[in-house]
Specification:
two-stranded antiparallel ribbon; 1 helix; single chain; mainly beta; elongated; 11% helix; two-stranded antiparallel sheet; 6 strands
Length: 74
């Protein structure tokens, strides 16, 4: 596949394999869901994830909530 080939645009939720410092798209889509809030995260805005848990997070606060629920201020 190269940049000149035309494919139908991917829509819906993507399936991602989270790696250290990168991720691999397993099933094309336009977004993934935050494991804590359930909010859709556009792939171009995806910055936070857990390699061990294979989950995406919308914000740093969501990461803290997931990894340290007893330490998060309410």
């Amino acid at each position: 596949m190269n940049r000149f080939e035309r494919f139908p645009p991917a829509t819906g939720e993507a399936e991602i394999r989270y790696l250290d410092g990168d991720f691999r798209i397993v099933r094309p889509g336009t977004f993934v869901r935050c494991a804590v809030t359930g909010q859709p995260i556009p792939l171009e805005e995806l910055r936070y994830w857990s390699v061990d848990l294979q989950e995406a997070y919308a914000t740093p606060q969501a990461v803290l909530t997931r990894l340290h629920p007893d330490r998060v201020r309410r």
